[in-house]
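pasting for the record
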Amino acid sequence: MTINIQYLHMPTSEAMNELLTHKLEKLSVKYDWIISTDVYFKLANDPRGKNKVCEMKMEVPGPRIFATSTEDNFEKAAAQTLKDIERQLKKRKAIYSKH
């Protein structure tokens, strides 16, 4: 699986890169049909303070899987997005295993 992590209009974080790479590699072991993952971190304009956005786009057989979340820090945003991605992967695996 190929992992591409991009930080839009902000400095990169090696700690976040390592954390996300580790978690995404765990997912690729569990779901071996994942082709690639694109992760985007960016800042949004939000007056409530939840301005850290994490978007993930996953290339898998069939339609792409996409999830996004907005939180008050990037770690929470990444964790929530990973949770959403894993939920979609479980649904996709259930569909494929029936056939």
